[in-house]
Amino acid sequence: MLDHRGTAMVIDCSGRYDQRSYNVSGTIPDRHEQSPWNAFQRKTPWAPSIEPVFSMAPSLVQARSSFSLFAGSRALFRKKINIFARFSEGICISQQLGIAAGGTCMKRRFCIITAIPISCVIFFVPVLGEQTFRGITEPYHSSTISATVPGRIAAIKHKEGSYVRKGEPIIELEKEEEEYEVALRKLIAESKSQLESAKKLAGFLEHDFKATKQLFDSTQSVSEEELRKKELELRRAEAEVARLTTMEKKEELEYKIALSGLQKRIIRAPFNGYVVEVFRKVGEGCNAREPLVRLVDVSKCRFIAHVLAGASQGIRSRQKVTLSLDGGEKTLSRQGTVEFVSPVIDPSSGLREVRVVFPNTDGSIQPGITGTMSLGGQSHE
Hints:
By secondary structure, the chain is an alpha+beta fold. It is 40% helix and 27% strand. It has seven helices and 15 strands. A hairpin with a 4-residue loop joins strand 11 and strand 12 (331-341). The longest helix has 40 residues, at 224-263.
């Protein structure tokens, strides 16, 4: 690309450039030969200088790692640099040919005024339209499971790498004492003999009281004192039934508590997934809330990206996006749905967290790989 001194400038993506002087015929002029561009500026002092356009390009390239405007692949950025360089070189050559052909002042002026903005648009618009924000994937479900009670590991039902379904036991602690307690509470809770006897007695006394009261009301053959005695016996029997009913409920609750204590000694899978890591071996003791096993579900994954505040304004929850994930030899594409857009922005970085959920039923995506998220005409990394 020609700069304002009539030199060829080659820009790479690191911001460095090499330059060699040449003239319109393609030969390298003598160092004392004046540049055609300088000659053109002397003949047409009204011509606007395009020096800022060329001098700005290296600094823009150098700022690529600092500003998200130029974030993206090196090949893409190099392509845009080459487009800009070729177009700008054409501007300079057309001016030199215009001078040699004796073009009118107005034609040369129109060429410069229109070509410079067009070259800037050619360079900047594609970069803005194809900017990217990178992110990282993770399993949708990932849990480190622990026991809520202390104990000693009796058995490991599933080893690392095994697939387990929700509710299946993974690790069992020693539980003989808890099993005996459950059996005892079950026997007590299922015993209904006392309550049934009390209900029968209360029923007999109620019938006796009604018969006595009928005689008292009709014939006065029984005394009032005897009637009151029958009524008191009935009320005592009804109170005993109520007490035994409460005891039965209490015994049922105690049985459930014992059963819950037994279940706490069995570590079960909270969801379908793979056992990634087991932290203890058979025979080792563990404390309450000490990590025992890690379980992940990779049938559905989450993509997490941190987006600049300005670029995230158009992102909405449940919005459909396209993900390009690094699959090793080839890039894998997935369609995802925006699950969460953080309502706050990190004040230290100016970034907003965005989470996208996408299916991975075939298991081709290994959580932990990086990728990019495309939204509409733009990509957000």
